[in-house]
């Protein structure tokens, strides 16, 4: 019984092969597992626990489904997944002999070619059929090959094979589709259609030894391979209607008018088959195919060229005579073959050998990588076959079945690839072995270097764990600098951010190399503009990489020194701009007198520190543009710091006017009140624009606490420049009224009058100032008429005030009218005083009468009256009543007032109540002393003043609470939740 075959096989192999796993792989030269692998064979077989009842004739395996036929025509079908063996003896009593078995790659469909001397017949079966069914009673030429349908959709519907091709011994290719579903509708036939689509024989019977067809990926392109004893045919074309039956005839139809394409091959052995190898068992992408000839194994890699109608472009013949690296004329043709990933397994009568598909670089080296000898105790070895779905390899003899396990078959192949210079293929094999991949890369880098492919060599060396100095020295000897640049750049990107020293060194070195190349191209007379531009862009891209940004920031000076040493000013500017080093760029523009560029940069990249640093230089060279840019920044700039840059000794008038423009903007638009700003503006006004000074001073006002400038400073400057009117205004601000009037009189009497009229709230001062003016007018001009007009203008001065200023010879006639007017005024004032006295007397009499009426007033308290606070009967306790009719118990009134009056008042009230209570308790006798009564009355009077001064509900206390919320914030949320 073939029970638990897979488990037994794995256990058997595991007992023979044990590899101790390593904790980690090291890149050290001494570490390599190849030494251990030498003791492990590539081919490791295990006998399957199965003993046939008779000699095995043929065996096929697909998708863990085994079909075998014995010499007695007994057919066994074994499902390895279910450990189930089924015997079909339909052919036991037949005169037909089983010639060949054909099992599809999914293990669903089986074709059996039978025959005898006179006839041949074809039978069909599936997993579900318990007996064989004839295929349309086919009795033509013997079917020698089958091209199965490899479409996975066919596997999902196991009731039909899909379109397949059959090749017979006469050279005909037949397309058909078989399935059990047709059995129900076509009276027992399993054939949907049967059509001969091509004939290779051309009238002379030629057996088709191998036949396969495949679809190229998911495209509509299909190709067909067929082998005869001497030729390999290839057919390729598109099938646009895949529902048409027969489907594959669409390909052959194209070859009815053109000769078919074939390739002459050495004589193909009769027992050969057409074998395909599918990478990762992907049936949509076969990698290579092959078959046995009398001279060697024909192997070709699939390379579809739909334009040239070819399936492969080159092939290789692995000669039997050269398998061991020496000429051997006495060689044996293998019985069978099958492919693995890197080997072809050849079956000989006594052994199985693994032959490398890649020929060694040394022609005298053996191509046989392993040999497995078999005992003849189980009879002759018959065949070696492969399960395409699982990749397992089966070997069977007449009385035994074996399974092979392939162990690390790539152990030698990578070295063969390496020796032949096929580095990419070697890397693909060694991808998971750091030690091997390092060897491959070293050899590849050396190969590129020796073949002068220096750039490729540099890129590989950069990824290797080799001496940095050694590699650098190799490339430094070259005249071309691009390889060392590539090496350094690749090495740089492989560093971690912690390797700061290495990053800095490589970065500076690369900058030097770039700068030198650019300098060479700039100095070149050939003017290689395109090359220069490309190199410059590459340099910019390098400097923009994130790994070196921190290095650039910390090594500015060194980088600028390198660029400066090569005279690359434009690149220095670009680099500074890219890294926002605007200060350096602006300074460069200033040094070059390129003021326009400096202003443009400052305008496009407004950093406040740049304005504070360069405003002084820029405003001298371009005043209007600089001030406009400063104004454009608005509140982003601190006017105080800007002024520090704009303080320029002895500026030109044009420059001063622009500075004034910025100062006015700062004051009027930015509301700058800094004293230094205002003082600077005043100083500029005094020197360059006196007309605006008085407007400024008037806008600032006369209050010294409201002005933003220093009045003392401004007054000193105005005196130095003899600005009298401004001095008058500043004296007023400083409160020097008398000095202001004196100074104003030196300018004009009208100015003095205006000055004297300003202090309206101070009558005495105003009178004093007006007297100064009057004295000046009288004494200086000696004009009595003007003095009389002056009296009319000033309401504070009378004729008697200015009389002392007139000379003694002046007669009274000049003042008669003024004296009369003054006397009339006095008379009116006396009359007004009398009227006011009479009104006051009447008001006093009214107040007296009201006081008398209040003394005799009373309120009637009813027994039913309630306290306005507690709503209990009023007369049960001491109470207070108010004219508004509100009544309160004394204690209720105190309780109501307590939250709204100072705690000191409440404490005073309680203290007075305690004193009053004590006085009542100590004086219960009927006869009380007058002193005690007076004392008690005083205490009561004091208490009444606090409690009964006004009604709590109607007085000032309640009015002052009008803006207080009914519910305090502290308890609002609590009350809100209660209501919810």
TrEMBL record:
It is a peripheral membrane protein. InterPro entries: Clathrin_H-chain/VPS_repeat, Pep3/Vps18_beta-prop, Pep3/Vps18_RING_C. Signal peptide: none annotated. SUPFAM superfamilies: RING/U-box. Residues 41-406 form the Pep3/Vps18 beta-propeller domain. Keywords: Coiled coil, Membrane, Metal-binding, Zinc, Zinc-finger. CHCR repeats lie at residues 630-786. It is found in: Late endosome membrane. GO terms for biological process: endosome organization; endosome to lysosome transport; intracellular protein transport; lysosome organization; organelle fusion; vesicle docking involved in exocytosis. One of its GO terms (cellular component) is HOPS complex. This is Vacuolar protein sorting-associated protein 18 homolog. The lineage of its organism: Eukaryota, Metazoa, Ecdysozoa, Arthropoda, Hexapoda.
